[in-house]
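Supplementary Methods, section 5.1.

A reviewer requested that the exact input to the structure prediction be made available. We therefore reproduce it here, unchanged from the version used in the analyses.
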Amino acid sequence: MSTEEQVREFGRVWAAAEERGDTVALAALATDGFRLVGPLGFVLDRDQWLARYDGGELVTEKLGWTEVEVRDFGGTAIAIGVHEQVATHRGNPVNGRFRATHVLVREDGRWRLAGIHLSPIGAPFVPGGDRR
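The structure derived from this sequence is encoded cell-by-cell as follows.
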C-alpha cells in the first residue's frame, strides 16, 4: 500500500474514532507530543485534545475528511484536506468546515498523528484582486 493510501486510511480511522468519541483509539493514533491548533488559534496538547470528550463535553455527530492531498516526505507525511463537522461542545453547536493540515510521522512502522492545524475556509485568493 502506498503512503498516500496508508494516510488516507489513517484519516478514515481517525474520523471514525472522533465520531465515536473513542479516546482510547485516538490516544493510540497520536504521538506523545501531539498538538492541535484550533480554528481560532488555540492550542491543545495531547491530553487536552483527548479530554475534549470527557463527560460528554464534546459530541461529534459527523466528521468528514475529504479533498485530501497527501505529500510524502519519507518518515513524515503532510495531508491537507477539508474537515467538516457536525458537533456540539457543552451543548453549543460547533459545526464547521475547515481547511485542515494533518502532520503524520512514522513510528515503529506505523503512522501516528503529530499535529492538526484547522483554519476557516475563506474566499479564494485572486492575484491582483481587491484585498480590502
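Helices lie at 3-20, 23-29, 46-51. These observations are discussed further in the main text.
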